[in-house]
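Sequence, structure tokens reproduced for reference:
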Amino acid sequence: MDDKEYKYLGTVDSPADLKGLSREELRCYCDELRHYIIEQCSVNPGHLASSLGAVELAAALHYVYETPGDKLIWDVGHQAYAHKIITGRREAFRRKRMLGGISGFPRMAESPYDAFGGGHSSVSVSAAFGMAKAAEMCGRSFKTVAVIGDGAMTGGLAFEGLNNAGASPDTDLLIILNDNNISIDKATGALKSYLVRISTSRLYNRIKRRLWRILAHVPFLLHCFQKTGNAVKQGLLKNSNMFESFNFRYFGPVDGHNLNELVDVLSALRNIGGPKLLHVMTVKGKGYTPAEEDRTVWHAPGCFNPDTGERLRQAPAVARYQDVFGQTLLELARADNRVVGITPAMLSGCSMDILMREMPHRCFDVGIAEGHAVTFSAGLAAAGMVPFCNIYSTFMQRAYDNVIHDVAIQNLHVVMCLDRGGLVGEDGATHHGMFDMACFGSVPGLIVAAPADEAELRNMMFTALNTPAPFVIRYPRGAGAGVEWRDVPFTAIPVGRGRCLRRGTGTAVLSIGTTCADTAAACADAAARGIDAAHYDLRFIRPLDEQMLEQIGRSFSRLVTVEDGIVRGGAGQSISAWLNDRGFGIRVRSLGIGDSFVEHGTVAELHRQCGFDREGILTAILES
């Protein structure tokens, strides 16, 4: 379908245009909108399946509510593509997630329709309650709606928000639980089972549908039903309604792909005050058969043929770091019965599904609950297990307190593997793992390591298993350097020891983690220009290799450090401080991420922008 075949899509540039459509035209518009998302994501990849499942919901919300005056919060933000297109970003959507283009997530700085940023999960209830409370306190009349989906309700912050908001019975707030029974992988835990029990109660749903048809037209009966609804639900479901226990009026479940029902229900709820929760059932990937059949793969499928569903992404020539982690974890678990795996809803993303398939009893997906993942791991370690807790670097920031109090202070043998360390590319500022070395490098008792390649990641995991101390390993997203690692015997790495990879004079370059490859190439380029720079690989951010640093301080007049992380408080500044404290006169220049958030683009573009790609490192060597 090309632009000329869209009848309604091009006529809607704002929610005001959407309101001019009839119900039937709105349904046709949603079909076109879904097709447009598929069409654009096939050539410019993004988070596909989640947004396909929320097309009708986004359209109904903007059809009923007066946005941007009314506040609409999407959580998690990767289900908001339809929202972005409806709110004037149809053409900009063609360049989503590209350098200089719009974000793949709601951004307050991008549009007045993005009431709150949505890169992380489980924030919407708290943020929406804050907005609704502000409206109440200031005498303003706007409505506040939070759409929480893709497993985000499993996060502890969502329950903290429900608990607090439920204690304000006069605050006008609507929470929409977009229930598709999946985050990236299949949803787990007691909440998932509870929601299934609600949504599959046939007697309750049959009565509910009949009542809603009446209540939409008779406000008096609606009021009566509000007062007696909880008793009905308790009787039919044979247990109390959890959301009602938080003092939220519970409505639903309703079919999230039935536009007429959505519009009717939302119209009625808009006129009901107090905290309310609408339970909406949707299908992730709705309307595109390949995405419906394999929702995990089509969460973010890369480029594909929209007509056939054939994914066009070529298999990488070398292994991804996540696959090295997953395979190595399985090998370690086979050899040591103490090894267990823990991840917060990133089972396939971090490749812990490899362990899950063979040893499901030793692998735990705890849902979107990073703090719990760390403290659960601490409990396992306190009882003699060796947990490998894998959390994306940016999400580990949520568990910083747990790492300090529950792991480090108690000196527990927890191995924390931080996937997606450094700049991750098109997901942008909310997903870059730029703070981990600065955060954890300052925590007493932690060992913090950064492998240079696949073989080093494998050996650091082996080293961590055999080192009875809290151990952090950070590594990047994507393909490795091509170093052989499969079926290679494990080798223990001396903790706190770096290595010299190239000898030189005058200037030394010290790489941290996977910046090693570009640093080695830049040193070779410098040698071709007559500058013989030495190259050292740090390996451990904590403890520092003091013997190696002393050798550098005594042998060189200039040092360049290179890290894929924030410079302020990072490894380079720690090294500079160490050398300065001991009176070495060496001049240190630290390359890495500057004192600002980095937007989206390819990893290569962002490395170049931040000045620590191969050319940037070479320039620093030449200038030194």
In short: The longest strand covers residues 558-566. The two ends are 56 Å apart (CA to CA). Residues 23-43 form the longest helix (21 residues). The CA atoms of residues 146 and 227 lie 24 Å apart.
